[in-house]
């Protein structure tokens, strides 16, 4: 079971605006915040997301083939999450729509280029 996922950022303040908006739609608060690190999630809930400046001091970079999937409650929320992402500095990676039988998703990147999607099954 995944406890949390941490993504790198080069501009924590800018990335925080993006993730605060996404987390608000999902009803998930900030659960930790330290200098250079913020995490969103609920104790006892599903996996959380953390953002940090890389500890080695080098620039954050995007993982090729890495994606974080955010489970939505319905197709309308998939659309809202996608729209929120684009309105808060994210970029399009595939508009919401069916992606095979029983899978509906929208794909986007955060301001640092990390790939995410919002999805619903069924």
TrEMBL record:
Q: Which residues form the VOC domain?
A: 1-121
State the UniProt keywords alphabetically: Lyase
InterPro entries assigned to the protein according to its UniProt record, in alphabetical order? Glyas_Bleomycin-R_OHBP_Dase, Glyas_Fos-R_dOase_dom, VOC_core
Q: Name one GO molecular function term.
A: lyase activity
Q: Which CDD domains match?
A: VOC_like (cd07262)
The molecule here is called Predicted lactoylglutathione lyase
| Annotated source species | Sphingopyxis indica
Taxonomic lineage of the native organism: Bacteria, Pseudomonadati, Pseudomonadota, Alphaproteobacteria, Sphingomonadales
């Amino acid at each position: 079971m995944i406890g949390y996922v941490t993504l790198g950022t080069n501009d924590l303040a800018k990335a925080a605006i993006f993730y605060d908006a996404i987390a608000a739609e999902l009803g998930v608060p900030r659960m930790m915040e330290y200098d250079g690190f913020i995490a969103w999630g609920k104790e006892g809930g599903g996996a959380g997301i953390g953002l940090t400046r890389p500890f080695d001091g080098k620039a954050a970079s995007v993982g090729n083939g890495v994606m974080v999937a955010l489970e939505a409650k319905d197709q309308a929320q998939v659309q809202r999450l996608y729209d929120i992402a684009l309105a808060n500095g994210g970029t399009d990676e595939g508009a919401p729509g069916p992606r095979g039988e029983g899978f509906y998703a929208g794909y986007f990147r955060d301001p640092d280029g990390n790939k995410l999607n919002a999805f619903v099954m069924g």
